[in-house]
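Milestone 3.1: sequence recovery, worked example.
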C-alpha cells in the first residue's frame, strides 16, 4: 500500500520502519523504503489541475481528485474535507503542511490485514515535522503465511 506522508517543513527524510495505525482496528503499517518529503507547489488562481496534482494552500496540503480549473480569485482550497470544490476542480485535504511524498507501507503482522482508504491516519512513531499520514486508496489485503504442515 502507498500512503501520503505530510510534513512541514519539507525535505525531511524518513527511515524504513516508521509506523502509522489504522483508525478503528489499530493495525500497524510500517514504511518499507526511505523517502524524502518534497516541497509542494503553491496553489494558483485560474490554473488547470489534473487528478493527482498536489498543492499547498493556506498552510495545508491538498490532492486533486477531479480535474478542472481553479477559481480566478481567492487563496485556494480551504477546509478539511474530501471533496472541496474550487472552480471546476475538486480537492481532498491531506493535512497541515507544505510538503508531501508517497511512501510504501506494509502491515507489520502477516495475514488478512486491511486499511480502507483514509483510515491509515494515526502516526505511531512520531518524527519531528511529520504532521499527517493518509492512504488515499484501500490497502491490498494480505494473506496468511503458508506452512508445510
Amino acid at each position: 500500500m502507498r500512503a501520503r506522508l505530510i510534513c512541514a517543513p519539507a525535505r525531511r527524510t524518513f527511515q524504513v520502519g516508521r509506523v502509522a495505525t489504522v483508525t478503528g482496528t489499530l493495525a500497524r503499517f510500517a514504511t518499507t523504503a526511505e523517502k524524502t518529503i518534497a516541497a509542494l507547489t503553491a496553489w494558483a488562481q485560474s490554473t488547470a489541475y489534473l487528478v493527482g496534482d498536489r498543492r499547498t494552500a493556506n498552510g495545508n496540503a491538498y490532492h486533486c481528485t477531479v480535474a478542472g480549473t481553479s477559481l480566478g480569485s481567492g487563496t485556494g482550497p480551504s477546509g478539511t474535507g474530501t471533496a472541496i470544490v474550487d472552480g471546476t476542480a475538486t480537492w481532498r485535504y491531506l493535512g497541515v503542511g507544505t510538503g508531501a511524498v508517497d511512501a510504501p507501507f506494509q502491515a507489520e503482522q502477516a495475514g488478512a490485514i486491511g486499511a480502507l482508504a483514509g483510515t491509515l491516519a494515526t502516526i505511531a512513531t512520531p518524527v519531528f515535522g511529520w504532521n499527517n499520514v493518509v492512504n488515499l486508496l484501500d490497502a491490498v489485503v494480505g494473506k496468511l503465511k503458508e506452512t508445510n504442515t
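The chain has a mean pLDDT of 87. The chain has no helices and 16 strands.
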